[in-house]
Amino acid sequence: MKDMLVHLYNLDFSDKMPSKEVQIIRVLSPNSDKVIQFVETHFSKGWASEVKAALYKAQPTCFVALKDKKIVGFSAYDATAKGYFGPIGVDETLRGHNIGKALILHTLEAMYHDGYGYAIIGGAGDSVLKFYEKTVGAKTIEESGNVYDRLIRG
């Protein structure tokens, strides 16, 4: 698992919509339970806990992808630590339709407008490094250790 760095000043945020059937929105607090349930069902309780931190703010830092009024993906920032992007996830049956790309671009644009110049993608697994490199020009941070080293395991 590697941390990655994204330079927000050089990103093109114009290509944010995956299709006409999918809408990306910032979550409103009344929908928090639905988002947490989606993340827990399709991903993990750990990610659901991170998303809770992003949702329980006056201005939530969590976005969802909606298709046919159902949640099909999510992304968050400032959930585990300030300046951190993630987690992000898309329903397995809809991957490959640019929903993840749209989510990451919406989220990073929000970070940019919140005053961040860079975003850290924390603890990216080997299976997604190329996605982040290709989609937003993320660079791997080679130093060892990251914020997730503080997780209580067991």
From TrEMBL:
Statement: the UniProt record of this protein carries the keyword Transferase: yes
Transmembrane segments: none
Limits of the N-acetyltransferase domain: 23-154
UniProt GO MF annotations: acyltransferase activity, transferring groups other than amino-acyl groups
InterPro entries documented for this protein: Acyl_CoA_acyltransferase, GNAT_dom
Pfam families, sorted: Acetyltransf_1
This protein's UniProt keywords: Transferase
CDD domains cross-referenced by the UniProt entry: NAT_SF
Protein name, UniProt field: GNAT family acetyltransferase
